[in-house]
Amino acid sequence: MSKAIVETNFKFPGQKSFYKGKVRDVYNVADRYMVMVVSDRISAFDVVLPKGIPFKGQVLNQIASKFLDATKDILPNWKIATPDPQVTVGLKCEPFRVEMVIRGYLTGSAWREYKAGARELCGVKLPEGMKENQKFPTPIITPTTKADEGHDQNISKEEIIAQGLVSREDYEQLEKYTYALFQRGTEIAAKKGLILVDTKYEFGKKDGQIYLIDEIHTPDSSRYFYSEGYEERFEKGEPQRQLSKEFVRQWLMDNGFQGKEGQVCPEMTDEIVNSITERYIELYENITGDKFIKHETTEKTIEKNVSLFLEH
User: Fold this and answer.
1) How far is CA 277 from the centre of its chain?
2) How does DSSP assign 87-110, residue by residue?
3) Longest Cα pair distance anywhere in the chain, in angstroms?
4) What is the three-class DSSP state of 209?
5) Helix-, strand-, coil-residue percentages of the chain, each rounded to 5
6) For 244, which DSSP code?
7) In angstroms, what CA-CA distances link 34 with 2, 50, 54, 92, 173?
8) Per-residue confidence at 148, pLDDT binned at 50, 70, 90?
9) Alpha helix (H) residue ranges in the chain
10) Quick check: 201 pLDDT over 70?
C-alpha cells in the first residue's frame, strides 16, 4: 500500500511563515510566493480523519490546476506553476474572509435545512414545494465566513457588507465572478456527462486586483452528479449517483459519526482507505477525462522539486 503524505515540515529558502489547513500545508516564501502542498489528509464535518488517503493530494492538485488554466480568461488566478504533482506555487494574495458557495441544486446541507423547514438560506429566499436534488430556477450564492478553526458559518450578502468583511463594490464583483466560473464549470462538466451541482470559490486581492485562489472544481470543494439517469432518479425520489466527497460523509454517518462532541471516528481499515483512494481516482478520470498516472511522491521529492523551482 502506498504511503500517504499527511505531514510536511519544509524549510524553503526565503520562507517567512507556514500555515497548516485541514488538507493543505501553505508556505509563504519571501512574501512573494505561496507554496501550497496538497497533503493526503482527508476531512469531513470539519474534522481531519485519522488516516490519510494515498494519491488524494495528487488528484486534488491536478484537478485544480487544470480548472485554473481553463478559467483564467474569466479572471486572473494565483497559480504560477505546479513543480510537483502535489504542489502548486502561486502569487501571495490577501484572501477575502468569505467563501463564495454557489448551488445549482437543492442538496446536501441546504436540503437538510430545507427539509427542517427553512425557506431562506444566507438571505436567499427559497421556493416552496421543492424536492431533494431539484434544480434551482437559477443558481444561488450562499456564502460562508472563512473560519481559521472549527466550522465555517453561513452568512448573507448584507451581513458580509455590514460587518465590513468585504466592501459592497468588491462583493458584487465576487458575485459576478462566481456566476461566471460556475457557468464555465457547468459547461465543462456537461461535456463529461456530469452535472456540477454546487461548489465554492475563494478569492484574494493583490495590488488592487481580485484573483481566484486556492482550489477549484475538485471533489473536495464541489459536488457532481452523473447526468445519465438524473431525471429518472429525481422523479422516483432516489439518491443520485454522485462524484464528490459525500460518500465519505455517508460512510461516517452510517457509522454514527458527524463530527459532534463525544462522537468517535470509526476505524479506517486498509480496505476503507483503499476504496477511498479508488473513488478519488475515479473522480479524477471522470472530471478531467484524463487517465490518472500515480506518482509515488515523498516528502523528499516534494522538497527537491519545489527548491529547484524557487532557485530559478
Assistant:
1) 17
2) EEEEE--EE-SEEEEEEEES-HHH
3) 59
4) strand
5) 30, 25, 40
6) S
7) 27, 27, 24, 5, 24
8) low
9) 56-70, 108-115, 157-162, 168-191, 230-236, 246-254, 270-288, 299-311
10) yes
